[in-house]
Amino acid sequence: MIDDLYDLIGGRQTVWAATEAFYRRVFADDTLRHFFKSTDMAQLHSRQSMFISMLLGGRVVYTGKDIHAAHARAREQGLNDGHFDRFLIHFSEALNEVGVEVDKVEKVTKLLETRRNAVLNSREG
Predict the structure, then answer these.
(1) Quick check: 5 and 108 in contact, CB under 8 A?
(2) In 10 A of CB 116, how many CB atoms?
(3) Cβ 77 vs Cβ 38: under 8 Å
(4) Domain boundaries, the chain
(5) pLDDT value of position 60
(6) Cβ 32 vs Cβ 26: under 8 Å
(7) What pLDDT, on a 0 to 100 scale, did the predictor assign at position 36?
(8) Could you write out the DSSP letters of every residue in 6-71?
(9) Residue 78 burial (10 A CB sphere; 0-12, 13-18, 19+)
(10) CATH 3.40.50.720: does it fit domain 5-120?
């Protein structure tokens, strides 16, 4: 596991800012925007920040839905590998935008990639 990546990239403030920049990018992307039509974005931003913080080793307790369950509606709407790839690109660009060093962006992206199957597969496994 990557030690202290959460702290190395700047902790809570950086994760929050990157999440905000990420969703700005997602809403500007015609291939992704429709997944969030009826979403409470304030709640999603908060939960996403918690999840990313936990994933990166922050001392944060994620209280949202399990990642598989959280993406069930999006899978029903056709969420696929191409969409996941675009999400990764947008999150990487958001990290760059808020000043995270390239090598650390790569580490974060690799960690997010490990969640691809949980997000996309119709059954856990």
Answers:
(1) yes
(2) 14
(3) no
(4) 5-120
(5) 84
(6) yes
(7) 92
(8) HHHTTHHHHHHHHHHHHHHHHHT-TTTGGGGTT--HHHHHHHHHHHHHHHTT-S----S--HHHHT
(9) exposed
(10) no
The CA-based angle 10-48-33, given to 5 degrees, is 120
Which pLDDT score, from 0 to 100, does residue 124 have?
46
Q: Residues 19, 2, 61, 125: what is their CA dihedral angle, to the nearest 10 degrees? A: 90
pLDDT of residue 13: 95
Residue count (the chain): 125
Contact criterion met (CB below 8 Å) for 56 and 111: yes
pLDDT along the chain (125 residues), means of 10: 79 96 96 92 91 90 87 94 97 98 96 95 60
- Measured CA angle at 66 (ends 31, 103), to 5 deg: 65
Buried b (16+ CB within 10 A) or exposed e, 95-106: beebebeeebbe
